[in-house]
Amino acid sequence: QLQVAESGGGLVQPGGSLRLSCAASGFTSEDYYAIGWFRQAPGKEREGVSCISWSDGDGSTYYTDSVKGRFTISRDNAKNTVYLQMSSLKSEDTAVYYCAAMIGASYYYCSSSPDDYHYWGQGTQVTVSS
Predict the structure, then answer these.
(1) CA 6 to CA 23: how far, in whole Å?
(2) CA distance 60 to 89
(3) Is beta strand 71-76 parallel, antiparallel or unpaired with respect to 95-103?
(4) What is the mean pLDDT of residues 3-10?
(5) H helix count then E strand count, the chain
(6) Which of 84, 75, 77, 81 is nearest to 48 (CA)?
(7) 59 by DSSP, 3-state: which?
(8) Residue 58 confidence (pLDDT) above 70
(9) First to last CA, the chain
(10) Could you give phi then psi for residue 129, rounded to 5 degrees?
């Protein structure tokens, strides 16, 4: 059974850092999948934050404008894990963060649309507050 699970959320002061992890399980070496990070704040729609294609070397990454220069996505395919390093956090980054896997993507493609993803984690809360 294919699954993804997030970890690493918590409470951090403005300007601080957190690293989220997305661990994938049940995938075989023939499953090429992209990973997306999304977030949802109370009363707001789910927003695409970042994504990374299967091939992170010559592959594709995406960042929404509000996190460019502050967030970095990376992956370790040997560990089936994707990381989202978040720095210079702001109160507006407060949300539940979800990771999701998109199966069947090409080596070099990922998507910022939640409709393109097939497997979702349960989410991890990130709260930025003093």
Answers:
(1) 7
(2) 24
(3) unpaired
(4) 96
(5) 0, 11
(6) 84
(7) coil
(8) no
(9) 40
(10) -160, 150
